[in-house]
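Quick start: what a row looks like.
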Amino acid sequence: MTGQTGDKTRIALPVAVLFAALGTGVALAADKRPREYLDEETAATITVVAEPLVFACPRPELAANVRDYVTLAAAAVDRNGKVSYVLIGYFWSTVDPRVRSDAMPSPEPLVLQADDRRIELTLRGHSAHEAGIGMAVHAPPGTDVTPNVYGTDLATLRFIAEARHLTIVADSEGAALSYELWEDRSTALRAFVHHMSGED
């Protein structure tokens, strides 16, 4: 192998690795793109985040390795060009209902702490259908839980997507429960925001 050929090989290999990495990144980004469809029940165009945010609160006093969770999923409802935004929240748990005496936290008030900003989520109701969405949005698997629909806007969703630290504070019989981010899926929320802003 000549020096020139060796140089080309040494350059070509890192370039190939770089393109492979970029290709993987593009594929991953494509997987996080929101889903958009025409809702046959409500006749609205629905855009749903690819993955919800999941928050967890450990409950070691009830059993080992069990947690209460809050799932938050962003969605946009387009009715004849008028777009509204919602966060659909679910309270669920891996705690055996037979060993717990307390109720699940109240869906209101619900506060999302995003970095130094306190965002109080306004409950609109307990039916995604009333918000214009005919089918369940990222309901937790294997559990039958009531959806809680909170009104929001695109600017707030952008702030949440870009925040470095997210925490949820919920009320449980007068006591505040803090839920930390369990699965960081902000990439999907950023993709949702960019799509709704026309930036993708």
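That is the whole record. Residues 8-28 have pLDDT under 50 and may be disordered. The chain has three helices and ten strands.
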